[in-house]
Amino acid sequence: MNLSVNLGKLKLKNPVMTASGTFGYGAEYSEFVNLNNLGAVVVKGLSLNPMAGNPPPRIYETPCGMLNSIGLQNIGVEAFIKEKLPYLKQFDTKIIVNFFGDSIKEYVKTAERLSSVNGIHALEMNISCPNKQAGWSIFGTDPKVTFKVVSAVRKITDLTLIVKLSPNVTDIALMAKVAEDAGADAVSVINTLTGMAINAKTRQPRLANIIGGLSGPAIKPIALRMVWECHKAVRIPIIGMGGIISAEDAIEFLIAGSSAVAIGTANFVNPKAAQDIIDGMKLFMIEEHISNVKELIGRLKC
Amino acid sequence: MLSADNSLDPLLKRPFSLFRWLDKDIQILYRVVGKLTNILKDKKPDDILEIIGPLGNGFPVIKGKARPILIGGGIGSAPLFSLAETIKHKKPIFFIGAKTKKEILYTYALKSIGINPIISTDDGTLGQKGVITNVLREFLTHHSSPITDYCIYACGPRPMLKELTLLSEKFNLKGYIALEENMACGVGACLSCVVNTKNGFKRVCKEGPVFPIEEIVW
Ligand SMILES: Cc1cc2nc3c(=O)[nH]c(=O)nc-3n(C[C@H](O)[C@H](O)[C@H](O)COP(=O)(O)OP(=O)(O)OC[C@H]3O[C@@H](n4cnc5c(N)ncnc54)[C@H](O)[C@@H]3O)c2cc1C
Ligand SMILES: Cc1cc2nc3c(=O)[nH]c(=O)nc-3n(C[C@H](O)[C@H](O)[C@H](O)COP(=O)(O)O)c2cc1C
Ligand code: FES
Which of A17, A80, A215 to mutate to test the pocket of ligand 2 (most atoms within 8 A of CB)? Predict the structure, then answer.
């Protein structure tokens, strides 16, 4: 049985990776999952300097999903390289580093630093974050800004470059195309959808930050639709995510056009989720007489 | 972190303290408030639950002569019982407060290990009427002096813990409090459960849930 897939020049042993921000820096889940078995580990989003994040409460559960407003808390690039990367490098898996900045300059500097060390296999650019120069509007919602920031990072790195798209746009296929034109090797679809929850009795928002990002099974139909739209628009590989809980969910994302999938909120529900999904995928392939997982990618019958 | 089945709603596991850890069993004492706890209350013997744990730290048993004062508010009394059992030779003074009589927990079990708790309820149906921190303030006013040495251990609602922080400053007490925050992963990965401390945000699931009382910034 062949489970391997390619993201540009990066070859994964299987299509299952972890979603940024839901798997810490890998070590947190190593008691539950053998990291050697994963297609890739994607770490929590990093910025040039450490960030404290938003005040609590930071999460609130909603029907079949959760809102989070962590606020991109992270230890910063240098601490990651010194304290977390050596541990991850022991494993036979691909290490993908998610990162972001508050200006194009900061994106470039962060990507340069991450590209200068050994052991990182790919960069995932989170463009769902506010742009300081443009009054904190989001990098990932204005196609011109998206093109600029992705091109700037593309110029300075030879690593596989993945752009993680924001779903909070009118036309996600257009944004995928912009990323492709700017030189991205792959796109991740989708980040969280902005949402909100209110306590009716106190009239207060449930999150200190008032709004947060919705993830989990509640967003799966939207994520699938967006993967499908991007699949029709671009030739670069797509990493599908958003509400994947089971192997069957993951396979649906492959059929919609993703070459790989990322497991996010499901890790919280079941700390062994990533492993269970790999095992379930194998079982599905045996039952359905599929010998190569690539036979599923983008094979929606319609 | 505990879940009762594979349902998608409730989705996340819920955090609970260990009430008691026996030879072959662990016991959890919980209050029915919402989705998961309502499912839990209908479970029968031999039904299967999924638990990951134990996670995080616990109340430290400090060396020295300090006499322990335990303060539990409502369901916050849950994690204090095991501690009381462990340190009963230090003759802990146990304060328990709740809204009403039926929310005052396990006093019978406490008496069986020789501890007679001091009780208050908001509505006066058991013990003194009023909040437990007022009863504690009264106690400290009469029983605290430069030569007395107490260590407080507390768990309960936020306003109670806040008030305790003020009391600990006023009467110069050291101590530990167990905090609650909304949680998703329970293993330190998602950064959902942070509280503000004098040394920045800390994770309740990993660095906590027990923190030195002077460390928390309210
Ligand atoms: C470290 C830690 C230890 C805990 N130990 C215990 C324990 O030993 N026993 C116990 O009973 N509980 C304990 N809790 C609280 C427990 O986690 C919640 O009561 C539980 O998550 C509620 O789940 P639910 O699905 O029933 O309620 P939900 O459906 O999630 O919530 C229903 C309603 O209850 C309210 N609610 C939710 N959580 C709380 C809360 N913590 N306090 C008051 N109201 C709440 C919500 O605002 C909501 O309106 C602990 C929490 C933490 C963080
Ligand atoms: C608690 C939490 C933190 C997250 N942090 C990040 C992050 O730092 N960078 C990022 O690009 N995406 C982040 N995400 C988004 C996820 O990687 C993923 O795109 C999204 O949650 C949808 O997948 P899911 O429904 O499987 O969780 C975070 C999601 C959650 C729930
Ligand atoms: S609950 Fe995830 S870090 Fe504490």
Answer: A215
Ligand 1 centroid – CA B18 distance (Å): 14
To the nearest whole Å, the CA of B168 is away from the closest chain A CA by 24
Domains, in order of start, for chain A: 5-52+71-192+215-295 (3.20.20.70)
pTM: 0.96
So where are chain B's domains? Answer: 67-212
Q: Find all residues with CB under 8 Å of B93, minimum gap 6, and list them.
A: B67, B68, B69, B70, B118, B139
Q: Which token pair is B71?
A: 């303060």
User: Minimal CA–CA distance to A96: which of A241, A217, A205, A292?
Assistant: A241
Backbone angles phi, psi at A108, to 5 degrees: -65, -45
Q: What is the ipTM of this complex?
A: 0.94
CATH entry, B67-212, from 3.40.50.80, 3.40.1490.10, 3.20.20.140, 2.60.40.1600: 3.40.50.80
Q: Tell me which ligand sits closest to the C-alpha of residue A22.
A: 2
Question: A111 in helix, strand or coil?
Answer: helix
Specify which residues A185 forms β-bridges with: none
Interface test with B, best of A33, A41, A59, A202 (most B CBs within 10 A): A59
pLDDT in tens, chain B (218 residues): 999 988 899 999 999 999 988 888 999 999 999 999 999 999 999 999 999 999 999 999 988 889 999 999 999 999 999 999 999 999 999 999 999 999 998 888 888 889 999 999 999 999 999 999 999 999 999 987 777 789 999 999 999 999 999 999 999 899 999 999 999 999 999 999 999 999 999 999 999 999 999 999 99
Taking CB atoms and a 6 Å cutoff, what residues make up the pocket around ligand 1? Answer: B 10, 14-17, 28-31, 33-37, 75, 78, 180-181, 183, 209
